[in-house]
Design a protein that fits this description.
- It is a single chain.
- By secondary structure, the chain is of the alpha/beta class.
- The chain is built from 14 helices and eleven strands.
- The protein has helices at residues 19-31, 35-41, 103-114, 126-131, 147-153, 183-195, 197-207, 231-243, 249-257, 261-272, 276-294, 299-305, 311-322, 326-341; strands at 8-12, 50-55, 61-62, 68-69, 73-74, 83-86, 118-121, 139-140, 158-159, 165-168, 174-177.
- The strands form three sheets. A seven-stranded mixed sheet has the order 5-2-1-6-7-11-10, with helices on both faces.
- A hairpin with a 5-residue loop joins strand 3 (61-62) and strand 4 (68-69).
- Helix 1 runs parallel beside helix 6, helix 6 packs antiparallel against helix 7 (197-207) and helix 12 (299-305) packs across helix 13 (311-322).
- The protein is globular, with a radius of gyration of 23 Å.
Length: 343
């Protein structure tokens, strides 16, 4: 009887990787088809996926937080994998990547893709996929804090940061997970694709993995625009941070700026990337999120406290921007905060 070939998954290690994501993916891949059989039948299964940690060179090096790893192979020592996974990449999203910084990795990813491999990235690993040029004119996702920087450097990429998982490209061979632990969604999806849905479900049950069905937007910080270099706009940003609940906030900022309202709006959007009213909404919703997490005030009271007289409008805006209703947000994150602060 012929033995089915195990698909080969290569996980790319770089000094900018974090050990938790790299080895978290590694462990879940190796558990597929192996550990469930051990639990229910008393003997480990053969394993559904073969996994290897690769790097440009096979010598040991330290990754993020000082963890030492030894790659199992260099790029030249393995056949073309079925899948290449890029873990998170700890680079400053506000600092442009120097040309050539990841030249070896980018060239190898392009070569693997041209030979038929699926390329997948977790969290900020999309930064590296973007450098290959393969994401141009494709949908993509990444950690919410990196989306704007990638879009600015690669304007042809269509960022879909509300999604925890995006499957894109010709033949669906470009796959990206959003921020944080959504690498687990990516790993389960790849197991299902390579070894079948039942193996993926077993791995999820074995490792207590919960699918990020709501995407990553509920976890994202909405108000993340840095203070503008334009001194007039920066002064308005400082003021509105304390007065976001005032009536007619955009007109109030325009008066503070001593600019004509149309001129103020144009300069504000140029300096911050957001229209003034959109900026105010992000501040209000961030405060509402904190109030929903920390207390039990009625939704209507929270809406009024952050500047919305119409609680219905507040609820619709909250769901559109955050991905959950205010009540759903309270149930998820209020319970988490309560558990973490319990004596």
């Amino acid at each position: 009887m012929s033995i089915p070939r195990q698909p080969l998954v290569a996980i790319l290690a770089m000094p900018e990787s974090s050990a938790s994501v790299l080895y978290g993916m590694y462990d879940v891949f190796l558990s597929a088809g192996r550990d469930w059989d051990y639990l229910v039948a008393g003997a480990p299964g053969a394993g559904a996926v073969r996994t290897v940690v690769v790097a440009s060179r096979a010598e040991s090096f330290k990754v993020l937080n000082g963890v030492s790893i030894t790659p199992e192979a260099s790029f030249d020592e393995i056949p073309v994998p079925d899948v290449v996974c890029v873990p998170d990449l700890a680079v400053d999203p506000l600092v442009p990547i120097e040309d050539g910084r990841f030249a070896r990795e980018v060239e190898w990813l392009r070569r693997c893709h041209a030979s038929g491999a699926v390329l997948a990235s977790a969290c900020s690993g999309t930064v590296l996929l973007a450098e290959t040029g393969l994401l141009d004119d494709c949908d993509a996702t990444t950690h919410w804090a990196y989306a704007a920087a990638i879009a600015q450097r690669h304007p042809r990429i269509r960022m879909r940061t509300r999604s925890a998982l995006v499957i894109s490209g010709q033949g669906h061979r470009l796959i990206m997970a959003g921020g944080g632990t959504s690498w687990s969604d990516l790993t389960l999806y790849l197991i299902a694709r390579l070894a079948g849905i039942e193996r993926a479900m077993q791995a999820a049950r074995m490792n207590l993995i919960e699918w990020h069905a709501a995407g990553q937007q509920p976890y994202a910080r909405l108000a993340r625009t840095p203070q503008a270099a334009d001194a007039i706009i920066a002064r308005c940003q400082v003021w509105i941070a304390e007065h976001y609940a005032v009536p007619s906030p955009v007109a109030a900022m325009a008066r503070l700026s001593e600019l004509a309202e149309r001129t103020f709006k144009r300069r504000f959007e140029k300096a911050t990337g957001l229209a003034p009213l959109e900026y105010v909404h992000t501040l209000r919703l961030e405060e509402a999120k904190q109030m929903l997490e920390a207390g039990n005030e009625p939704i209507e009271a929270i809406a009024n406290a952050v500047g919305y007289e119409d609680a219905g409008f507040f609820g619709r805006l909250f769901r559109r921007q955050v991905g959950l209703s205010p009540l759903q947000y309270r149930r998820r994150f209020g319970a988490m905060r309560s558990a973490l602060t319990a004596k």
